[in-house]
């Protein structure tokens, strides 16, 4: 690999002195990142393929996984056959056995070791069949037998299905079981034919042509369960492949397991990984429609229930309205109105009576306030008050408190000393009488 190519995949080297720059140091991969990048690059560059070699260092673990080395004269590579794939193999593995393995390259990151994850193993004696398979595949493909343009669309909901297979095989039982489990409704006709051995391809081709001539099938399925390449070889024979391609009824090829490919798979209108997968594919649209119908039925039932409930409410409303319009209801309404008006009349009468009573009480209060008797009583009280004030201010009241009123002979009150002369006759008025007196010489300074 050139420096440029290496730089494009893993990054360029540092400066001219060979030391990485600070930026390159920051971008350096960890070992885990580097190994994962190698793993992704190998997985993307090398697709699953067949590899021929000799088994060496075979180790079967208690977990069911099988580890071995696949080698030839020039190199070797680690290989692993996981438990599920190992259980499906019909080849008894042993050291020194020449085999063809089908698998994909991967990297065991913990050790940084690349290996082949094996999906299928066949003895190298089968290599001849594999070469014949590849040669016939190329020839038929060049004829356009496998072109998508000549394939027919699979009906989404076939009503009548014909299954060309062995009536005693497990494949047809699995096919029927899945259709029943998924609730598929339709007609399934098992078209019996040999699926293995001499004459099997011709028998299946004849059955396909007979089914096509009946004109009752919407879909044909051809297939069988898994097996070795020799077991499945009838589905690679040219006569059957051409019969599948020429059939005017849509054909699904359902042969073997997921990793098994036959030429019928390429010639058929659709390939199913297994017969069970074909049953699921055929019934999927039916199941989808059933689910849609179930949801539609539930929705319709809900809408119908809501519509019935609304109609019931409307009916109740109309009944109530009809009752209101009936003569008895109108009479009842008249009674209600009469009772209401009687109540309102009684209430108005009580209110008017109360109002008149309040007005009468106010008039009585006003009349009482304006009557002569009241005014006389008030005037009498005022007169009494004035009389008491007059009595309190009268000379008699003063005399009663111990004072004496001096008067001259004419009876005029003597209010000042200067008005009295020596020897002048005066009258002293007491509360209980009067006394005549004669004034003496007044004392000065008093």
From TrEMBL:
<dbReference type="InterPro" id="IPR025824">
    <property type="entry name" value="OB-fold_nuc-bd_dom"/>
</dbReference>
<dbReference type="InterPro" id="IPR020579">
    <property type="entry name" value="Exonuc_VII_lsu_C"/>
</dbReference>
<comment type="function">
    <text>Bidirectionally degrades single-stranded DNA into large acid-insoluble oligonucleotides, which are then degraded further into small acid-soluble oligonucleotides.</text>
</comment>
<dbReference type="Pfam" id="PF02601">
    <property type="entry name" value="Exonuc_VII_L"/>
</dbReference>
<feature type="compositionally biased region" description="Gly residues">
    <location>
        <begin position="1"/>
        <end position="12"/>
    </location>
</feature>
<dbReference type="GO" id="GO:0005737">
    <property type="term" value="C:cytoplasm"/>
</dbReference>
<feature type="domain" description="OB-fold nucleic acid binding">
    <location>
        <begin position="29"/>
        <end position="121"/>
    </location>
</feature>
<dbReference type="Pfam" id="PF13742">
    <property type="entry name" value="tRNA_anti_2"/>
</dbReference>
<keyword id="KW-0269">Exonuclease</keyword>
<feature type="region of interest" description="Disordered">
    <location>
        <begin position="1"/>
        <end position="26"/>
    </location>
</feature>
<dbReference type="GO" id="GO:0008855">
    <property type="term" value="F:exodeoxyribonuclease VII activity"/>
</dbReference>
<feature type="domain" description="Exonuclease VII large subunit C-terminal">
    <location>
        <begin position="145"/>
        <end position="437"/>
    </location>
</feature>
<dbReference type="GO" id="GO:0006308">
    <property type="term" value="P:DNA catabolic process"/>
</dbReference>
<comment type="similarity">
    <text>Belongs to the XseA family.</text>
</comment>
<keyword id="KW-0540">Nuclease</keyword>
<protein>
    <recommendedName>
        <fullName>Exodeoxyribonuclease 7 large subunit</fullName>
        <ecNumber>3.1.11.6</ecNumber>
    </recommendedName>
</protein>
<dbReference type="GO" id="GO:0003676">
    <property type="term" value="F:nucleic acid binding"/>
</dbReference>
<dbReference type="InterPro" id="IPR003753">
    <property type="entry name" value="Exonuc_VII_L"/>
</dbReference>
<keyword id="KW-0378">Hydrolase</keyword>
<dbReference type="GO" id="GO:0009318">
    <property type="term" value="C:exodeoxyribonuclease VII complex"/>
</dbReference>
<comment type="subunit">
    <text>Heterooligomer composed of large and small subunits.</text>
</comment>
<keyword id="KW-0963">Cytoplasm</keyword>
């Amino acid at each position: 690999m050139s420096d440029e190519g290496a730089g494009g995949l893993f990054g360029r080297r540092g400066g001219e002195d060979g030391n990485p720059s600070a930026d390159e140091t920051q971008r350096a991969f960890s070992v885990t990142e580097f190994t994962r990048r190698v793993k992704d690059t190998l997985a993307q560059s090398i697709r699953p393929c067949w590899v021929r070699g000799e088994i060496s260092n075979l180790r079967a673990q208690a977990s069911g996984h099988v580890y071995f080395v696949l080698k030839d004269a020039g190199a070797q590579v680690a290989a692993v056959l996981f438990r599920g794939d190992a259980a499906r193999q019909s080849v008894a593995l042993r050291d020194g056995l020449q085999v063809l393995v089908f698998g994909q390259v991967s990297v065991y990151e913990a050790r940084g070791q690349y290996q082949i994850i094996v999906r299928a193993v066949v003895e190298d004696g089968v290599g001849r069949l594999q070469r014949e398979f590849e040669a016939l595949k190329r020839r038929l493909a060049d004829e356009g037998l496998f072109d998508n343009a000549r394939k027919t669309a699979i009906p989404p909901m076939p009503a009548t299905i014909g299954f060309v297979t062995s009536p005693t095989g497990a494949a047809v039982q699995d096919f029927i079981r899945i259709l029943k489990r998924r609730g598929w409704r339709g007609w399934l006709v098992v078209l019996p034919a040999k699926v293995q051995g001499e004459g099997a391809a011709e028998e299946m081709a004849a059955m396909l042509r007979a089914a096509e001539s009946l004109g009752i099938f919407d879909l044909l399925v051809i297939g069988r369960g898994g097996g070795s390449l020799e077991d499945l070889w009838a589905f690679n024979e040219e006569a059957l492949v051409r019969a599948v391609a020429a059939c005017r009824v849509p054909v699904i090829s359902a042969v073997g397991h997921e990793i098994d490919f036959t030429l019928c798979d390429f010639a058929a209108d659709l390939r199913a990984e297994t017969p069970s997968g074909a049953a699921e594919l055929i019934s999927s649209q039916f199941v989808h429609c059933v689910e849609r119908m179930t949801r539609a039925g539930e929705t319709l039932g809900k809408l119908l229930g809501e519509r019935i409930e609304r109609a019931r409410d409307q009916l109740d409303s109309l009944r109530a309205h009809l009752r209101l319009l009936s003569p008895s209801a109108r009479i009842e309404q008249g009674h209600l109105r009469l009772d209401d008006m009687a109540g309102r009349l009684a209430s108005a009468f009580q209110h008017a009576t109360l109002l008149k009573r309040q007005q009468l009480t106010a008039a009585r209060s006003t009349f009482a306030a304006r009557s002569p008797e009241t005014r006389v009583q008030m005037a009498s009280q005022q007169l009494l008050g004035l009389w008491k004030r007059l009595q309190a201010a009268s000379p008699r009241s003063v005399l009663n408190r111990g004072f004496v009123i001096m008067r001259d002979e004419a009876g005029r009150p003597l209010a000042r000393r200067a008005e009295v002369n020596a020897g002048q006759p005066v009258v002293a008025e007491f509360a209980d009488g009067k006394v005549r007196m004669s004034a003496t010489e007044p004392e000065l300074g008093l």
